[in-house]
Amino acid sequence: MSALRSIRLSSVAKAARFNIAPATAIGVRAYSSKTKSLKERFAELIPEKQEQVKAFKSKHGNDVLGEVTVDMAYGGMRGIKGLIWEGSVLDAEEGIRFRGKTIPECQKELPAAEGGEEPLPESLFWLLVTGEVPTQEQVKELSAEWAARSDIPEFVEEIIDRCPKSLHPMSQFSLAVNALQHESQFAKAYHQGIHKKDYWNPTFEDSMDLIAKLPNIAGRIYRNVYKDGKLPAIDMDKDYGHNLSKLLGFSENKDFVELMRLYLTIHSDHEGGNVSAHTTHLVGSALSDPYLSLAAGLNGLAGPLHGLANQEVLRWTLKMKDQIGINADEQTVKDYVWATLKGGQVVPGFGHAVLRKTDPRYMAQREFALKHLPNDPLFGLVSKLYNIVPGVLTEHGKTKNPWPNVDAHSGVLLQYYGLVEQDYYTVLFGVSRALGVLSQLCWDRALGMPLERPKSYSTDHLIKMLGNKA
User: Which residues form the active site (predicted)?
Assistant: First the structure.
């Protein structure tokens, strides 16, 4: 380990211990005394939120949120109202709102990079944690803090480097995050007997460290599996999206960097019931630290019915292109879609467990494509699907939501800029999703959320219960 790296790591640990901003201790950037850090603002908000929750529970603790049917129990708990998630709420018709703000509102209100248009992931994380739109200065300082915390231990680098290239990138990603648990401040503090009212503090520090290190982990996996294994240093004065782009080898393309900022923002959070969010929350409820909790969430994200779907959509689209041609007319595309359905297969990228309209995340990516790559033939094919598939699925009659979701578009954009390795796409999703699930995990510990333990029944028991009732 280099002397500089040793200084950085020890300074970060010392800074966290004494509750000061790590970048100040390291000397990378002296934070303005006029600007409150994210941690300082979070600490201010906790008592107010605790009182709000206490008062609300006292008044409405016995109120009914909804009923649970047998179909819900057998249908993956779909539609059951039973989770608290502060960062976002998903409306079936309107789509996602981050702390009450739609994606277009976030694009308009959240700070962007100098010369850029898309919101910075740092600004969204600030919004998710505090419910407030940060200033440009606050976002800049958060960028500097994440850059200062970004180094990963040499033993974690060695673990990644020893992985065979044939090991799926998501498996490597989860493995590395699990290994980083060695650095957990929450685990150490819990072992030493920290009071539960202070759980939020090391949880916040772990979350900040983990988010900061994810680009280095993701970049190392990408370079090892698909390139020469050589990884550039991050720029200490640049933002999160730029540095991830640089580690992947695409930072010279300003449009790709803007795409990364948009991608990381819109994939970050989708309320608490999806697999990666719920899993992170569930594992965290056992007081597993943020590293173990996120690793569990990443394993859920790697499933083909969740985050892995973005690569499956692109593969299906490319297969269609190879069979009917990239410039196929609309009738030919329609016939191909019908052939897929009649063959007992689904059209990937269309439909959603909750949404009943076109996913606003899809629309944000479509608008990006219309601006930056309007004449790309593959985007043209995706546009035909956008116009054709909903009508076919409606006529087919076996889907409640025929509209495209976020996975139907992301792969096409990444392909256009040269990031063509489809197995890697879910890693990018994982980097983004960490912003949402870890912001909530900080609030889980601040609000003293308990161990999650819903009740279950066997089929035989349900038959006895409902048979007697009948």
Answer: 306, 352, 407
Whether residue 413 has pLDDT greater than 90: yes
List 239, 289, 407, 444, catalytic entry: 407
Catalytic residue list contains 352: yes
From the candidates 306, 359, 409, 444, give the one annotated as an active-site residue: 306
pLDDT for res 470:
54
- Distance of alpha carbon 340 from alpha carbon 328, whole angstroms: 16
| Neighbour-count burial of 114, counting CB atoms closer than 10 A to its CB (0-12 exposed, 13-18 middle, 19+ buried) | exposed
Whether residue 301 contacts residue 429, with contact meaning beta carbons closer than 8 Å, is answered with yes
pTM comes to 0.90
Residue type, 468: N
Catalytic, out of 352, 359, 409, 444:
352
User: CB 337: neighbour CB atoms within 10 A?
Assistant: 21
Residue with tokens 């606050």: 138
As a whole number of angstroms, the distance between CA 364 and CA 117 comes to 12
Q: What is residue 227's DSSP assignment? A: S
pLDDT computed for residue 311 by the predictor: 84
